[in-house]
Amino acid sequence: MAGLNVDLCGIPLDNPVIPASGTFGYGYEFAELYDINLLGTFSFKGTTKEPRFGNPTPRIAECSAGMINAVGLQNPGVEKVISEELPRLSKVFKKKVMANVSGFSIDEYAYTCEKLDKCPQVGWLEVNISCPNVHGGGMSFGTSASAAAEVTRAVKKVTKKPVIMKLSPNVTDITEIAKACEAEGADGISLINTLLGMRIDLKTKKPVIANKMGGFSGSAIFPVALRMVYQVASCVKVPVIGMGGVKSAEDVIEMMLAGATAVEIGAANLINPYICKEIIEKLPDVMNEYKIENLQDIIGGAL
Amino acid sequence: MKQLDFEIISNKKIAEKVMELKLKGDVSGIRAGQFVNVLIDGFYLRRPLSVCDAEGGELTLIYKITGGGTKRLSELKTGTLNLLTCLGNGYDTSVSGSAPLLIGGGAGVPPLYMLAKKLISEGKKVAVIIGFNTKNEIFYENEFKALGADVFVTTADGSYGEKGFVTDKMKDLTYSFFYTCGPEPMLKAVYKSSLTSGEFSFEERMGCGFGACMGCSCKTVTGFKRICKDGPVLKKEEILWQA
Fold first, then answer.
1. What is the pLDDT averaged over residues A158-171?
2. Residue A189 is part of a domain; what is its CATH number?
3. Residue B144 lies in a domain
4. CA A239/CA A233 separation, integer angstroms
């Protein structure tokens, strides 16, 4: 019997597969398709203090083996997430959910995390300091070690739940940022958010995306993500969640060998809405093929 | 939503850059005005295509070749395609009244075919205006006639039917309600010209097509809506046109 279970910051997961924030909404679109309780957990849509519409459309562009999005953190705001989305989710998802939080100031991050800290359904806070699609927030906190440290410190003050800092790959040295977060008490690190990218329409001769640039994700970015997970896992002691271009059970195992305790799956959900279920079902066969008994034994095996 | 494999029956050109794709598979649950999201080998994102007809295990999709993905799709003559079906809200025929008018422009014409079929089966007197730029872009005039609809064709250059736009013809007709699909400038013109309530089908670049990614959101009178999940059909009264 293959052991899929892992421990993520003191909370057991039945398996390491976690749909990534922004590709799984608040869960119900997928709950119509399959029992989402078979997931390790999922990271819900990035939530901010105030409701946000996000960026103008077009927000989506296709690339070879990937896509660019510039949604811009559309969400109903933390009050509505707590009063409407979480009660609705509780009907279809019985496990602890990962709350993904974004902000435009240190105070906003702290405000939103403090609110979500009081929700028993929330297991972990995944703090996004890496959204490439909003000005004056998001990524600017994740591109400086001191700002990343400041957000971590502020959030840790308002919650007892595990705090996972989600990092941007759009930096010179991601290990500096990871170490700064760990030093301020981060309980985990997740990476990578999307790579800043762009497409230009040959007919209009202008950027495809209204916001001009956006976050590049999809299978094309897997080797970059894997390399960064390896680098970060090599220099921090806290658990690392690996993500970026994962689309198969083999990719999940590769990420875990690079040091990931759990693995998030993003863009692949948009192409095949059953992908996470299929990966979880496939994992025992692939583990068997590579003579892996327990996934938790292979974490960081390549380091 | 369902994820299903369909077998290609035929895939042929019916007008300039316009293809008619017939597929065999499970079409249960598909309503007029809904769309499917087609996976094309070699392309990362699926292609959302409106449903032209779905009956008796046969799905008809009509699409315009606008880029690399639809070009590749047009070359496929056999084999299977993976589709997400039953996407979007579709048209509401219960509000049509006795004599609805259907207004389609170019690549926006196809979903009106299944709608016309449904309305006629409900005993309604259906009129259809279909507008194109020029004669060689016209398709489905006879198919709409065969359903028993009154059909009017307009071309911008006057090379076939009545010269002008669909809105020029709208002025001559009386109707109880209208349904429309087409390029956004046409939808805006129809909005301004229309004398009754109606339903508009919109298009937007999509990520997933089933409401997960928020890639195709728009603002409406009743709040933010996702074109793919809460649309693509919006009621006239809820539309907020963007500048």
1. 97
2. 3.20.20.70
3. no
4. 8
Q: Exposure string (b/e) for A111-144, b if CB count within 10 Å is 16 or more?
A: bbbebbbebebbbbbbbbbbbbbbeebbbbbbbe
Tokens of B108: 């926006």
A201-257 pLDDT, tens digit per residue, is 999 999 999 999 999 999 999 999 999 999 999 999 999 999 999 999 999 999 999
Which residues of chain A have a CB within 8 Å of the CB of B207?
A: 59-60, 67, 69, 270
- How many structural domains is chain A composed of? 1
Q: Would B158 be classed as within a structural domain?
A: no
Mean pLDDT for the stretch of residues A170-174: 95
Q: Is A260 helix (H, G, I), strand (E, B) or coil?
A: strand
- A159 located within any domain: yes
Count of structural domains, chain B: 1
Q: Whole-number mean pLDDT of chain A?
A: 95
Amino acid at B184: E
**A303 part of a folded domain:** no
Report ipTM (2 d.p.): 0.92
Q: What is the pLDDT of residues A26-56, one digit of tens each?
A: 999 999 999 999 999 999 999 999 999 999 9
Nearest 10 degrees: Cα torsion B135, B76, A245, B36: 60
| 3 state SS of A127 | strand
Whether A1 is covered by a domain: the verdict is no
Q: What is the 3-state composition of chain B as percent helix, strand, coil, each rounded to the nearest 5?
A: 20, 35, 40
CA distance B50 to chain A (A): 18
Residue B46 covered by a domain: yes
Do residues A129 and A149 touch, judged by C-beta distance below 8 A? no
Domain with B57 in it: 2-87
Both tokens of A141, joined, read 């906190």
Q: Taking the CA atoms of A117, A122, A124 and A125 in sequence, report the sign of the dihedral they define.
A: negative
Query: Can you give the residue range of the structural domain that contains A245?
Result: 6-297
Catalytic residue (choose from A113, A131, A181, A276): A131
How buried is A10 (Cβ within 10 angstroms: 0-12 exposed, 13-18 middle, 19+ buried)? exposed
Residue A269 lies in a domain: yes
Residue B12 located in a structural domain: yes
Report the candidate in B101, B112, B84 with the shortest Cα–Cα distance to residue B177.
B101
Residues of chain B with Cβ-Cβ distance to A32 below 8 Å are 1
pLDDT value for A133: 66
pLDDT at position A300: 98
Per-residue pLDDT of A122-163, as tens digits, reads 999 999 998 766 665 456 788 899 999 999 999 999 999 999
Interchain pair A33, B219: CB under 8 A:
no
Coil, helix or strand at residue A204: coil
CA distance A247 to chain B (A): 12
Q: Give me the CATH number covering residue B41.
A: 2.40.30.10
